[in-house]
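Lab notes, practical 5.
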Amino acid sequence: MTATSALLTFDDGRLFRDGVPHQVLSGSLHYFRVHPAQWRDRLERLAALGLNTVDTYVAWNFHQGRPDRAASFEGWRDLEAFVTIAGELGLDVIVRPGPYICAEWDNGGLPAWLTAIVGTRARTSDPTYLAAVAAWFDDLMPRLAALQASNGGPIVAFQVENEYGSYGDDASYLAWLREALVDRGASELLYTADGPTDLMLDGGSLPGTLATATFGSRAADAFRLLRSRRADEPLLCAEFWNGWFDHWGERHHVRSVPSADATLGDILDAGGSVSLYMAHGGTNFGLWAGANHDGRLQPTITSYDSDAPIAEHGAVTAKFHAFRSRFVAAGGRELPVPADPVILPARSIPVVRGSGLLPALGSIAPRGARPTPPSFEELGIASGLVLYAATPRVPLGELELSVRGLHDRAQVFVDGEPIGVLDGDGSLPVRGTGTRVDLRILVENQGRINYGPLLGQGKGILGGVQLGRRLVHGWTTTPLPLDEWSAAELGALASGGATGAAGAADDAAAGFSTAGFVLGDGEPADAFLALPGFGKGFVWVNGFLLGRYWEVGPQSTLYVPAPVLEVGVNTVTVLELLHSGTHLAFRDRPELGPPEEYVETF
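Output from the prediction step:
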């Protein structure tokens, strides 16, 4: 039985809230994927779904991007404000502080500066890693402890790590984490969450701590396994995968309403508690989308809609209504269903071509010369682009230019002309004239791996560059942390005015484009932005980095939250890496690509 000081306790296989039998009816909603001006709206929609609880991860790298700067808990990062709003709406809160969260979030939530030091020793009892986690928890946990139910707040539980049994079996690390939470004031229910297999539960569960499962189907099998291992513990599906996320170049994953609703019914009919993953997915704004690796890198798209009951822009779906009936029948509150958000009407906006790709990026002062190309980590940036430059002598004839240890995608230019694109290690032919050439390699970090043994892998050119058998030495580098550019810096680069960068000679070439449009009083609304004719790149609205776009799909539109738009003139800025279009388009609905039914692989 759990400690009686916690609001949620269990005994003889049953869960209690303040001594009364209870089912947790929860949904995941991540504060870091929702514009803070929309937190209350999205939480109200979650409550209207009939839920009594919201759960959220805490993304460490979202709060502390650099080791020499204190973690931020202000503005978008005001976690305490998010939790407080949930409590005001009558919701209990479950916090999943990690420090690893997966979540299809860049680097699984771990700061790139940390994994640059510890490498694959992350998520173990390595002393350097534990010392960094301890310092982070010293800052984070007192804030959360003050908002626990025992202190009059809405937090009722904490998760210890996240699906650790899918990664490793360092039991001393898990035990250390549990004690680290308790020592810093966690007095509510603690639990672990793992996939429903013996292998995963063996590696991820802790004696004396509630063990829960994460799954999308076969609820009876998952609950049977939990009961066979922990007969006295209540049944909790800590993540019910009622939808799924997408990778670039694949189809848009969906979970049909009958399929998802039937499994939810099985969970609730068994008396189990549940948390929808996701109840509202939100968006991987900026450069926060992670990546998977299954023999090749699989970058996650900008949308995190996840076919959730509450869509990316807050609209309620058929899945919302089906689930709501289930939750109300299980004792959830029957609140009014909010109206769907207003959407900006469809329109087309011509773009103005600005500075070309290499002139603009090359106008930024490079770092000093190094003998070999440095990684993103050595340059002190986590995301974005790095422009590598060297001037090797190329003998007469044709040679192979090879790049080893490439993470992730490189565009190669010789004397200002593109000669090809590399996705990972590979080679391209170069024809030499017997003189030195201007060799430039623009490397894009497409998202750090968030799951599996390659977690924490570095970015950039980690091996070397060769011409034939000969290594190329003598590199200058230009780090391009796109997510750190101010609106003024972005505007200067796009126009070329402040930098002297030449304009693009070819309107269809790669480089910057801008577009302006005017909104009147009462007109700012949620919007869906498409980039027809553009290939791959990044887009900002009024200086706010929405994220990546890519013609390979599946997603064709990027969600623009209403708080980003302004009455008066609005400016869209595009950095295109391949080929530019002539117009931008606002669409009156999201276009996330051809659907494909999600199938669980356990």
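Observations recorded by the TA: The first helix runs from residue 39 to 48. The chain has three domains: 20-329, 347-356+496-596, 366-481.
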